[in-house]
From TrEMBL:
Entry EC no(s): 2.7.1.39
GO molecular-function term, one example from the UniProt record: homoserine kinase activity
Domain GHMP kinase N-terminal as annotated: residue spans: 65-147
Record keywords, A-Z: Amino-acid biosynthesis, ATP-binding, Cytoplasm, Kinase, Nucleotide-binding, Threonine biosynthesis, Transferase
Catalytic activity annotation: L-homoserine + ATP = O-phospho-L-homoserine + ADP + H(+)
InterPro entries linked: GHMP_kinase_C_dom, GHMP_kinase_C_sf, GHMP_kinase_N_dom, Homoserine_kinase, Ribosomal_Su5_D2-typ_SF, Ribsml_uS5_D2-typ_fold_subgr
Native organism: Flavobacterium jumunjinense
Function noted in UniProt: Catalyzes the ATP-dependent phosphorylation of L-homoserine to L-homoserine phosphate.
Annotated compartments: Cytoplasm
Main location: cytoplasm
Protein name from the UniProt record: Homoserine kinase
UniProt pathway annotation: Amino-acid biosynthesis; L-threonine biosynthesis; L-threonine from L-aspartate: step 4/5
Transmembrane segments annotated in the record for this chain: none
Similarity comment: family membership: Belongs to the GHMP kinase family. Homoserine kinase subfamily.
């Protein structure tokens, strides 16, 4: 095999209570990438559409992730990469993670799959560091593996795939404003009160238990964030109205997707998801800020060859 085309899905990180550790893969929005073996050694990005991101291999998330996987291999050939972005950078639905996970998945396929998808996460994290300054896996892991993932720890990297009930739908409203991850980090406080920590880890446990036992009520009760959302929501115009509109229309829970500005809701079943999407949309119209909205089932597969 000398060439492949892949789909790299968008992801929702944090899921309210799981700041920096939980993530979820969605289905109908994602980038496409094409990989070709080339006689020239190394990694060359030959085409980018849909985004103004760097062509330089060492500045592009995809380039750095791709270099990480071939670093210790003594290859007689190299790779060309085309990146076709559909996920806007700075949208909060894992734009950089899609490129990072996609790059290592694509190269691994052309190498004859020396690594499992789980093993690939560590290389993709090196790419993510270009966008955010630190190697983190809360978007990369669900993009790579699909479904819900928990980053239990980094030392050593310990990623847990979590089963999810089949009727779970995500709605994502993406306002067309950019929030830099660094700005969204700057509003956070380094210390948290013990009482908030207790509430938060109770909810993380509840969410995981709810997913495994397919208890939608428990999932809903647990989708709360008393630590990060109160500090970050001011960065997103009309956040409270959109969130309340989602909850009042039957969403199990709603909150900030990743570092924002996207707002997500989780719902039981497609009908409720459509009603929730309408309500969120109506609540956002007041802002006059353009936005797009996506309804998606949980994507159980993650990045894939198309
Ligand atoms: P997101 O959370 O949506 O991934 P970030 O703000 O974390 O957004 O990362 C986007 C930053 O990474 C932008 O500054 C962008 O220019 C840079 N970047 C470099 N390469 C890529 C790439 N292949 N895809 C997306 N963003 C990239």
């Amino acid at each position: 095999m000398n060439e492949i085309k892949i789909f790299c899905p968008a992801t929702i990180a944090n899921l309210n209570c799981g700041f920096d550790v939980l993530g979820l893969c969605i289905d109908n929005i994602g980038d496409e990438m094409i990989f070709r073996k080339s006689p020239q050694k190394g990694i060359k990005i030959t085409k980018i559409t849909g985004a103004d991101i760097p062509y330089e291999t060492d500045k592009n998330v995809a380039g750095v992730a791709a270099l990480a996987i071939i670093e210790n291999l003594d290859l007689e050939y190299g790779f060309e990469i085309e990146i076709h972005k559909k996920i806007k950078a700075g949208s909060g639905i894992g734009s950089s993670a899609a490129s990072a996970a996609g790059a290592v998945y694509g190269i691994n396929e052309l190498l004859g799959k020396p690594y499992t998808k789980k093993e690939l996460v560590q290389f993709a994290m090196k790419g993510e560091a270009v966008a955010s300054g630190s190697e983190h896996a809360d978007n990369v892991a669900p993009c790579m593996l699909g479904g819900f993932t928990l980053v239990r720890g980094y030392n050593p990297l310990d990623i847990i795939q979590i089963e999810s009930p089949s009727e779970l739908y995500a709605v994502v409203l993406h306002p067309q404003i950019e929030i830099k991850t660094s700005d969204a980090r700057a509003v956070l406080k380094p210390m948290i009160p013990l009482q908030s920590a207790i509430t938060q880890w109770g909810n993380v446990g509840g969410l995981i238990a709810g997913l495994y036992t397919k208890d939608y009520e428990l999932i809903g009760r647990s989708l709360r964030d008393v630590i990060v959302e109160p500090l970050r929501k001011g960065l997103i115009p009309n956040f409270d109205n959109v969130k309340n509109a989602a909850l009042n229309t039957g969403a199990l829970g709603a909150g900030i997707s990743g570092a924002g500005p996207s707002i997500f809701a989780l719902c039981k079943g497609e009908t409720i998801a459509r009603n929730v999407a309408n309500a969120m949309q109506n609540a956002y119209l007041e802002t006059k800020i353009p936005f797009d909205i996506h309804i998606s089932k949980v994507n159980p597969q993650g990045v894939k060859t198309i």
